[in-house]
Amino acid sequence: MVRIGVTVVVCLVLSCASAGAEDGGVTTRFFGDFRFRHEVIDTENSPSRSRQRVCAHFGVEVGVSPVTKVRFKLSTGGDDPISCNQTIGEAFTTKNMRIDLAYAELTPSGLNRSSLKIGKTDLPFWKPGKSELVWDSDLNPEGMTGRYRLEGTNIRAELTAGGYLVEERAEHDNTYLTAGQMAVHIESSHANRYLSLGAAYYHYGNIRGFAPIYDDSGFGNRLDSSGVFLRDYRLVQAGLEAMLFVADVPLLLAVDAVANTAVSSARIGWLIGGRFGDAEEVGNLEFWYNYRRVESDAVFGTFTDSDFAGGGTDGRGHELGGMLVIGNGLSAAATFFHNQTAVNGGPTYQRLQLDFRVRF
């Protein structure tokens, strides 16, 4: 039934887009990507694991009018909110595709600096240096996001606010997330050089005393003996990134920090790192490195990086990698994690990812 429903929705969207395009009143854009990954995971005192995984997206963006557009995207994977990966090698079984994005975006006429997104949306928050300290890059929240932009000479500011339903319960209070962020981007008089600064507040309501919201796991967050959350999560985050050039090669430096103001211990997380190069054109190389330390209740573990230290919180260590653009829409990348699965020195965790990706 799920597959039939998804197929019907896709057909309706595509048929409406086609009809509108013929009338000249609707614009349509298709997009997607495919990634093949070979991965090796080695955790101290545990057997090493080697596996292959695929991830694919296919989407359509329909401009219904100059002030309204709709975006719809399907993704491989199960119901994991922070992963599109589908492990292969399971007797050639068919793989799942699910709705990953489904939202409308409104830009009111005469208020083109404002926008409103409603539905299952892409992550709206600015992340310094693509940091996944608070948010995994695959997370797509569900709710409503408003944004207002201010622009001046060599400076731009974005104000973002949102309300999201995290867990709906028939007989108890719902878990929700309210969020606000301000990001300022300052351009240098030298081409392509800039400084960006941001600060955010994320408030999870109705977490403490409730069971984990996914996979019966706290993902590093502390639970009591009955398996419910011990702590609340009210996060203050601040970050910056600076774009410089070294011998005409771009160098991006980034710092990200977060504190859970609802607790007095195990509440700090931080990341420092950078990216060198620019993987935008064929033949270009880009390298990255970061070091981070995330205490057990610094962030909400269900939504943080799923790769670092095996996923979740309470970890520290290194991430480094590189990417080569080998053709239009084609790239190859390698990423290596060397982490400790506890901030005070747990088992060593190593993860190597070799990726081949096609975008269109």
Top keywords for this entry?
globular; 360 residues; single chain; disordered N terminus; 17 strands; mainly beta; Porin
Description of the structure:
By secondary structure, the chain is mainly β. The protein has one domain: Porin (Beta Barrel), CATH 2.40.160.10. 6% of the residues lie in helices and 54% in strands. It contains one helix and 17 strands. Strand 2 and strand 3 form a beta hairpin.
What's the SSE blueprint?
Blueprint: H1 2-23, E1 27-43, E2 49-65, E3 68-76, E4 86-87, E5 97-106, E6 114-120, E7 142-152, E8 155-167, E9 175-187, E10 194-205, E11 233-246, E12 249-260, E13 268-277, E14 285-294, E15 315-327, E16 330-340, E17 348-359
Antiparallel strand pairs: 1-2, 1-17, 2-3, 2-4, 3-5, 5-6, 6-7, 7-8, 8-9, 9-10, 10-11, 11-12, 12-13, 13-14, 14-15, 15-16, 16-17
CATH superfamily: Porin
Report the β-strand fraction as a percent range. over 45%
Biggest sheet, open or closed, and with what strands and sense?
16 strands, antiparallel, barrel
- For this structure, the CATH topology is Porin
Question: What's this model, at a glance?
Answer:
The protein has 360 residues and is mostly beta strands. 6% of the residues lie in helices and 54% in strands. Strands 1-2-3-5-6-7-8-9-10-11-12-13-14-15-16-17 form a 16-stranded antiparallel barrel.
